[in-house]
Design goal:
214 residues; 7 strands; alpha+beta; elongated; five-stranded antiparallel β-sheet
Length: 214
């Protein structure tokens, strides 16, 4: 426990946040048997180092330890394959790639003012397509983080409701468990309306979950 407290103090009080730090926090929680917080911090690490092989393997292993088996729709899995640059590259990497393509585009455009060659025109079209792809990826990510932020259930078991109070009926027969991932749809008082990976929706108390980006 002391190790994870020191790591979290570095991250949240000292403001030093990076993939390796969150990865180590995730590993520490996993060793403590806290699947919810281990997945939460692995997802935080993935924002910085999404291509790290050890991180991917540990996140996959932690997910396999969850009680809830919520399958991601095949359409979403297909999107991750089709738009691999959006999901496999960190936002920092995509920003760098966008900047490089953008700078080369204007360098080629300036060259074309003096050298009238058709290949320069096609090069501009190609480069424009590339930097627009990466720019679009960054815009989509920023929109998703502001409108549909991701979170993880951290309590061992949570009875979910059809509304934002204990007086509402249960949404599901069984509770949700630590490590279940979701996107936040709405907040009312101390309750969150969440959407699971299979598109089911329900309400949970704020204290039972934690957001990937606090």
């Amino acid at each position: 426990r002391m190790a994870v407290m020191r790591f979290e103090k570095i991250a949240w009080q000292a403001g030093i946040q990076n993939g390796k730090l969150f990865y180590n926090i995730g590993n520490t929680y996993f060793k403590l048997g806290d699947i919810g917080r281990s997945i939460l911090n692995y997802k935080r690490a993935a924002r910085y180092i999404p291509n790290d092989l050890n991180l991917r393997q540990n996140l996959q292993y932690a997910r396999a330890k969850r009680v809830d088996r919520i399958e991601t729709p095949q359409t979403r899995q297909a999107l991750k394959i089709l738009f691999f640059w959006h999901y496999d590259f960190s936002s920092h990497t995509r920003l760098m790639v966008f900047s490089i393509f953008f700078a080369i585009f204007w360098l080629v455009a300036a060259t074309r003012l003096f050298v009238r060659k058709s290949f320069l025109t096609w090069s501009m079209v190609f480069l424009a397509g590339l930097f627009v792809l990466f720019l679009g990826s960054l815009v989509v990510e920023a929109y998703a983080q502001s409108r549909r932020p991701e979170g993880v259930i951290i309590e061992p078991a949570v009875v979910v409701r059809k509304g934002n109070s204990l007086s509402y009926e249960k949404s599901f027969t069984d509770p949700l468990h630590a490590g279940t991932e979701f996107v936040l749809l709405e907040k009312r008082g101390t309750w969150y309306q969440i959407e699971l990976m299979d598109a089911r929706r329900c309400w949970v108390p704020e204290t039972t979950v934690e957001m990937v980006v606090p």
